[in-house]
Amino acid sequence: MRSVEGRLSKVEGRLGGVEEHLKGVEARLGRVEEHLDSVEKSLGSVWEGLRSIEKRLDRVEAGVEDLRKEVGEKFRKLEEYIDVRVERLGRAFSGYQEFLVEYLSVKGVVSPREAEMLKNEAARLSLLAVNPFTKEEWEKLKKYLEKNPEDFTLEEALEFRELGRKAIAEYWDRPEAYKLHLYTCVVYGLTLRKLEEEKARRASPQ
């Protein structure tokens, strides 16, 4: 009997030790749970901060996009303004050039030899890989370039000058186009001079 009681007492002692150990484990688990709660709260703060940064980046991207559109629109308007100004300047220069060359031709300052030299320069427009003329216009241009500058009718001279204007409108950056335009103005001026001389001869007494 005493032997059984002794064994029970040992078992109870051991159980008491296990209980103490379990209490220690529970305490440790409690501390781990508290630590995990703290980590979770920290992660929540981090995620909140990341969401705040993401929202700020979205606003910055939206602002950059708006700025890009605004700058692009301003550049587009500036480009259009420059194109218009350059076109006006080109038309003004071409108009002055026409008047001067035609006036000099009418007054006889430009000789037929000089006109022939300018014609040869103007013919270089045909060397362009692409030209602004239709097939019909190109045929007329070739015909007029081969024609004697003093043999044009007024209608032909006007049509020839329009072809010269078209050349500089399409190829304002090519010297060949300006030479062609100059030559058409010379032909127009020589034609006007010829018509004036014929008119004067008919009006003079025989």
Automatic annotation (TrEMBL):
Keywords: Coiled coil
UniProt protein name: Uncharacterized protein
SUPFAM superfamilies reported in the protein's UniProt record: Tropomyosin
Top-level taxon in the UniProt lineage: Archaea
Coiled-coil zones: 22-70
